[in-house]
Amino acid sequence: MDLARVQVAAKRSSDKYPLDLEIVLRIKFNEAVFGAEKEIDFTIKKPCQTCKGSGSKDGKTHVCPHCEGRGRISQQRGFMSFVQECPYCNGTGETVKDRCSDCGGSGYKEERQSVKVNIPEGIDDGMRMRVSEKGNVSSTGARGDLYVHIEVEADEHFVRHEKRRLYRDSGIFHAGDFGRDDHDPDAKRHNRAQAASRRKRQSSSSYLTALA
Which residue in 21, 126, 184, 194 is a FRET match for 94, CA 20 to 30 A apart? Predict the structure, then answer.
């Protein structure tokens, strides 16, 4: 399992962090072609139980004096005005006087979790999978979704194009022929079926030749 980075989605909640969570998962080329089951390790945010998610030692919050509770501040540069998230309250519009000693004023704790996901056959690089209610946890108990952004590693010999077709050099291979192992029971059945099909075609060809 190779997780390159962890990012949070843009959707905001009433908490000090967004509920939806996005992670990047790198998978091998053959896993993208045939599908796979992967166990993903990731970190979620949960409200600090000591301060109930407020980040304050006494549980009380105050209106941010910099943005006056709006969570946004504007800057005038010449004739243009720019609006950005307030850096003093991180867009919440609230500040605390004495920070919670348990969470350091962040209002949340981080927790490692894992979940198994089924990578569908034929998934492509750049696609996203949504795992319902596996994201961050709100102070109300609601939970966001986990979004898995897929990155497919390049293969040394094969390049996928037009869904189920695999190209190698100047040859074209069907996806069913890629990654077969002669010791794999499924591969053996596949090879036997192909051999039987070839024998049938050869037999038909011989019969037609005899008639001629």
Answer: 21
SS3 content of the chain, % helix, strand, coil (to 5): 15, 40, 45
**pTM check: above 0.85:** no
> Tokens in use for 103?
């969470």
Joined together, the tokens standing for residue 146 give 């986990």
- Amino acid letter, 119: I
* Lookup: tokens for 42: 């990731």
Rounded to whole angstroms, the Cα distance separating 134 from 144 reads 6
Closest CA to 117 of 146, 155, 154, 153: 146
- pLDDT, one tens digit per residue, over 67-124 is 988 889 988 887 888 899 898 887 888 888 899 999 998 899 999 999 999 999 989 9
179-187 LR contacts (CB < 8 Å, sep 24+): 179/30, 179/33, 179/34
Q: Residues for the chain: how many in total?
A: 212
CA distance 43 to 6: 8
